[in-house]
Amino acid sequence: MSLSDPIADMLTRIRNACKSRLPTVDMQSSRLKVAVCEVLQSNGYIEAFAVEGDERKKRLCLTLRYLDGTPVIEGIRRISSPSRRVYVSSQAVPRVLGGLGVAILSTPKGVMSDRAARKEKLGGEVLCYVW
Q: Measuring CA to CA, how many Å separate 2 from each of 28, 48, 74, 124?
């Protein structure tokens, strides 16, 4: 099955798993998805992730994080899409909920959070918001 937007599919799977209170989520793996998971894990939104399988059929397994039975991820939204790319300069990196959430950006130095992009003075494509 061909997906036109695999990042949106990943975010939808995470959103649905959080609403269903599932402990883990499985999906096809890619380097961009792994980079997004690294940012989510470093900001405390997921417990862990692992890439499983052989070279041809890699699977990405995420372990979601819950506090007292409620999911840590309250909301997750795709910003840039294949039909409408959203780019920002280093001065215009967005703040999600006044700094309570995280914007994930794809920059020339890799995928990073909005705080890291501001610190490095980098702009790039805004992939998603997480709060």
A: 12, 27, 29, 26
DSSP symbol at 110: E
pLDDT in tens, 58-92: 999 999 999 999 999 999 999 999 999 999 999 99
Whether the full predicted model's pTM is greater than 0.90, yes or no, is: yes
**CA pair distance 58, 29, nearest whole angstrom:** 5
CA angle 32, 29, 3 (to 5 degrees): 85
Contact 87, 127 (CB under 8 A): no
Count of all residues that appear for the chain in the document: 131
Which strands form 59-64's sheet, in the order they lie side by side?
Answer: 24-28, 59-64, 46-52
